[in-house]
Write a structure and sequence with these properties.
CATH architecture of the largest domain: 3-Layer(aba) Sandwich
Bound molecules: pyridoxal-5'-phosphate
Order of helices and strands: EHEEEHHEHEHEHEHEHEEHHHEEHHEEH
Number of strands: 15
CATH topology of the largest domain: Aspartate Aminotransferase, domain 2
Strand order of the largest sheet: 5-11-10-9-8-6-7
Strand content: 5-15%
Helix content: 25-40%
CATH superfamily of the largest domain: Type I PLP-dependent aspartate aminotransferase-like (Major domain)
Number of helices: 14
Length: 476
């Protein structure tokens, strides 16, 4: 992808010329007694040398207690080698592990921490809300406040339903698209992730190659038979799918800027053309903005690119670090959702006061003038600095960013889709990753995940990261 094929402030995608093993142990009655105790860690002082001794100890315990030692797979560091770092605390742009190492963090809890971790105002607001209780299981005023904020921010959303995760949001949006159109099929793109619900586990990230085959055992063929896939940025493939499945496609769902194959931006006319094709075919266009919502701009990718989908899914940022998701769209579609309409979807903790509070206060900060310009500036400096340092050390590297989202691949590019992304030298990424960790920089532990900046990242953080990258690029 050439830089010229992209429009809008802050986008660039530069080719390089430009610029543990599973721990299997039989359970025994004294299983719990064999769990070693982790010594309390004093976090007042940084350790003199980089050591992960306590993390190693804690993770070997975790592997006995939870599958793979984690509660979400990518945290297990499988694709970068080494072992996961067990965190103790987060603040601003930083995370601190249980060995006392400090990291400049570019994961941001996988997106929510756009104003920085453990923001004082958010924490104070949460403490106030908590005095009134943690869950009502009944309507509360905070739901109205956040709903009004989301509706006034996101162009496509006239009504919204809050849920507890991005996965739930995408499940709801899919059911709604099918209910509204009365059609069974959906189109998704290779390498786009829409949560772990059965119909979306087809070519999601590191998917299998055969059309419609589930990525995971346990997902029945019947659950994915109506999931059609196309390469991202491939208008001809989308057109063919619509031709071959006339009157059967309920909706097309995509990450408008892909973050789950690494950072991949849409080509200049891609979003516009799929908007046109979906309209012509009576199918709904669903933007999965779980990652891009409130990150590319206050109104999300749809505001940034000026393309209005029929339905939008959200998560991450709108919960300010607490579990949340949402789906919304035109009133006539959303009024199909129960109890206004017949499409059933529900949630015990949905709209709970804590998640609503953290979301409201996070969005308020993002409304302040200059927030997105600042993200654009620091993320641009960071991405350009990394690409320049990589090239100067003789590596094939390309990458890009929009506002608070970025990524780079160890290939000359261009990267238009997941197949292109997979050309990246992932073992080199693993070496780079480990080197950066030792330098005190925490990127997402996979080549196929976007990075995130926050309002709490300072210019000093960015310069320190680039300087660290220069040292590591020279070694790998
Ligand atoms: C674009 C996108 N959609 C959906 C999801 C699923 O969200 P959750 O992990 O909250 O279920 C994610 C998670 O990273 C995501 O990036």
């Amino acid at each position: 992808m050439a830089a010229a094929s992209l429009t809008g402030v802050g986008i660039f995608v530069l080719p390089s010329s430009n610029s543990g093993k599973l721990f299997l142990k039989p359970r025994s009655p004294c299983h719990r007694l064999r769990v070693p105790r982790i010594a309390a860690v004093s976090l007042d002082e940084k350790p003199k040398t980089f050591t992960l001794e306590k993390s190693e100890q804690a993770f070997s315990v975790a592997k006995e207690l939870m599958p793979g030692g984690v509660n979400s797979p990518v945290r297990a560091f499988k694709s970068v080698g080494g072992q996961p770092i067990v965190m103790d605390s987060v603040k601003g742009s930083r995370m601190r592990d249980i060995d006392g190492n400090e990291y400049i963090d570019y994961v941001g809890s996988w997106g929510p921490a756009i104003i920085g971790h453990a923001d004082d105002e958010v924490l104070a607001a949460l403490a106030e809300t908590m005095k009134k209780g943690t869950s009502f299981g009944a309507p509360c005023l905070l739901e109205n406040t956040l709903a009004e904020m989301v509706i006034s921010a996101v162009p496509s959303i006239e009504m919204v339903r809050f849920v507890n995760s991005g996965t739930e949001a995408c499940m709801g949006a899919l059911r709604l698209a099918r209910a509204f159109t009365g059609r069974p099929k959906i189109i998704k793109f290779e390498g786009c992730y829409h949560g772990h619900a059965d119909p979306f586990l087809v070519k999601a990230g590191s998917g299998v190659a055969t059309l419609g085959l589930p990525d995971s055992p346990g997902v029945p063929r019947s659950a994915t038979i109506d999931t059609l896939t196309a390469p991202f940025n491939d208008i001809a493939a989308v057109t063919e799918l619509f031709e071959a499945n006339k009157g059967e496609i309920a909706g097309l769902i995509l990450e408008p800027v892909v973050g789950n194959s690494g950072f991949i931006a849409p080509t200049a006319d891609f979003l516009e053309v799929i908007r046109k094709i979906t309209k012509e075919n009576g199918s709904l266009l669903i933007f999965d903005e779980v990652m891009t919502g409130f990150r590319l701009s206050y109104g999300g990718a749809q505001e940034y690119f000026g393309i209005t989908p029929d339905l939008t899914t959200l998560g991450k940022i709108i919960g300010g670090g607490l579990p949340v998701g949402a789906y919304g769209g035109r009133r006539e579609i959303m009024e199909m959702v129960a109890p206004a309409g017949p499409m059933y979807q529900a949630g015990t903790l949905s709209g709970n006061p804590l998640a609503m509070t953290a979301g409201i206060h996070t969005l308020r900060r993002l409304q302040k003038p200059g927030a997105y310009e600042y993200l654009d500036k620091i993320t641009g400096e960071l991405t350009q600095g990394i690409l320049d340092a990589g090239k100067a050390a003789g590596h094939d590297i390309c990458g890009g960013f929009i506002r608070g989202m970025f990524g780079f691949f160890f290939t000359n590019g261009p990267v238009y889709n997941f197949a292109d992304a997979k050309k990246s030298d992932t073992s080199k990424f693993g070496r780079f990753y480990q080197g950066m960790l030792e330098e005190g920089v925490y990127f997402a532990p996979s080549q196929f995940e976007a990075g995130f900046t926050s309002l709490a990242h300072s210019s000093e953080d960015i310069q320190a990261t680039i300087a660290a990258a220069e040292r590591v690029f020279r070694k790998i």
